[in-house]
Amino acid sequence: MKRIFLFIATNLAVMLLLSIVASVLGVDQYLAGSGLNVGMLLVLSMLFGFGGAIFSLLISKMVAKWSTGAKVIENPQTANELWLVATVQRLAEKAGVGMPEVAIYEGEPNAFATGAFKNSALIAVSTGLLQSMNKEEIEAVLGHEMAHVANGDMVTLTLIQGVVNTFVFFLARVVGYFVDRVVFRTERGIGMGFYITVFVCQIVFGILASIIVAWFSRRREYRADAGSAQFLGTPTPMIHALARLGGLQPGELPQALAASGISGGPGFMGLIASHPPLEDRIRALQARS
């Protein structure tokens, strides 16, 4: 219920903010006089901005299983599978959330958590990670992913993505309409200037939006590391797990899951990286010791 309220409140807040900004700047009156319905554009911006983000979240578990080939452990058959499920169960109880689905997929060292609801999430680990780490380190990684679930990070990041998507959609079209009328001097309907400008603005504003989303994503990684330390009672296992990852070739995840992995590749100048450098994460944990 809290997440639903947050989603509705965020939608209303974004619409209100855009309306106020347009009114204060006189943009709404100018655009209305030029034939653009600002109110309708706001509604469309919300539908496309939040709609796409929410839809992606709702199908995230299905997409994760399909894109990685992750196999959910329905009935543990081996000692390792029994240990893995039991460990996740213990962490879920500590976190106060429902038991997630536990899956294994073929690939280089990595792990991820996803799902729209914290009581029915999915936690998956790669065969490479299981083969490269000892049980204490694997438990720390599982604790990290469980912290993501308990913190509702998947929902939070979706809300942030929805907000920036809304701004990108709205502002790109406002700028496009302005340029089409003032620069290209289109007097009736919508001309090529609108479509060209919107295309360029979508790219530029989209890059700026990615920087914002990536910044929030990096913040949540520090919180998940700290959550693992809290679940295990010490940051040492997570420090060892991150150090181990630093000496391995991390497994790449599909783009839709890149921000959900235990580690991620560097972004342009670090601005669009979904994960902080491993060294920074280790230092943050060492400060907790």
Write up this protein.
- It is a single chain.
- A hairpin with a 7-residue loop joins strand 3 and strand 4 (122-126).
- Helix content is 66%, strand content 6%.
- The radius of gyration is 22 Å and the shape is elongated.
- The two termini are 36 Å apart.
- It has a four-stranded mixed β-sheet with strand order 1-2-4-3, sandwiched between helices.
- The protein is mainly alpha-helical.
- The chain has one domain (1-58, 140-289).
- The longest helix is centred in the C-terminal third of the chain and has 41 residues, at 192-232.
- The model has no long low-confidence stretch (mean pLDDT 84).
- Helix 5 runs parallel beside helix 7 and helix 7 (135-151) crosses helix 9 (192-232).
- The relative contact order is 0.12.
